[in-house]
Amino acid sequence: MDASESILPTDRASGRPAIFQGWRLWAIVGGAALLLLWLFFRGGKKDAAANPAGRPVPVAVAQARKGDMAVRLTGLGTVTALNNVTVKSRVDGQLIRVDFTEGQLVKEGQLLAEIDPRPFQVQLMQAEGQYAKDKAALQNASADLRRFQSLVQQGIISSQQVDTQTSAVAQAEAALKADQATVESAKLNLVYSRITAPISGRVGLRLVDVGNIVKATDANGLVTIAALQPINVVFAVPADNIQKVLSQNAKAAKLPVEAWDRDLKTRLADGALSAIDNQVDPGTGTVRLKALFNNDDRALFPNQFVNAQLLVDTLRGVVIVPTAAVQRSPQGSFVYLVKADSTVELRTVEVQGTDGDDTAVSKGLSGGETVVTDGLEKLRPGSKVALPKPPGAKS
Fold first, then answer.
1. Beta carbons of 168 and 141 less than 8 angstroms apart
2. Do 273 and 291 touch, CB atoms closer than 8 A?
3. Which of 33, 176, 312, 355 lies 20 to 30 Å from 193, alpha-carbon distance?
4. Which H or E run includes 24?
5. Burial class (CB within 10 angstroms; exposed 0-12, middle 13-18, buried 19+) of 138
6. pLDDT per residue over 368-385, tens digit each?
7. What pLDDT does residue 158 have?
8. Residue 98: its pLDDT value, please?
9. If you ran DSSP here, which 8-state letter would residue 10 be given?
């Protein structure tokens, strides 16, 4: 074979190897494909710019309305009894009777327990005996004094004897008064042997059983009584709000307070603010408040945890939207407003106050405008939305 001859196939027209002709063809085909892809994606971006969300986004909406809205402060609170008394014996003796059931509601003055009264009855009899003895002695001394006064007028005895007898009468009178005090003390101990309820309320668990010796110095006592009607709720609010509470409390006779369960789903009772603490808790940055509840249905129980809602103001004639519709960004609060062509507009608003599911807007919205409340995470300004169909509408 001639050295000048190529081992590769050649194109007769150009004299070049045929393999180079194949690579050129593939390059043309690849370039055309890239051009088509570029045109496709460019057109897609134009469509996305025209409709950022693509097809309509299903959302939930609500209409802004004008009305009045309450402004409340909510704080976790603890129910505390208005009075909590530990019932103790005021005399020493053996407990012979318990006249209450644990957890029972009792009235003030109701008999709760009884201590063996016999030692106190004996003391009373002794005191009364001594009183009778000293009373007779006083009568005798008084009779002698009258006789001496008659005799001194006749000059039979000296006036010194009269003075001495007068002193003896005074001593007998003093002894009789002491005896009277001893009698009253014995009677009081006899009364104290019957232990009665000092207040009305619910009794707790019994702390001493029948047969035990109880003493007035016992620390635990017999039982505790917690007053349930009325009852207090102690709760805390942020210190930043205390000036508003103080100003409103000065204007109104009593600021209303509602007690709700821990999930804020059930209202338990209605009451009123009764006291404001005089200092801020430095650990929590809050101020403690106390509210008083009649608790007629006994829905509140001592040491129960509740959510207390304090009404501090009422906003009149404001635009109200669902709280779920209000979003926040570094630039401020905003809502997505649904326009007539079913696209959304980002509208900046100024929030005036919030009460649970409702938020008052002072600027940026008017009554009757429609805002998005659900599906917000998929929206952009200009997005097309699919509004929910009214109830009863045909598909």
1. yes
2. yes
3. 176
4. helix 18-50
5. buried
6. 899 999 988 888 898 898
7. 83
8. 95
9. B
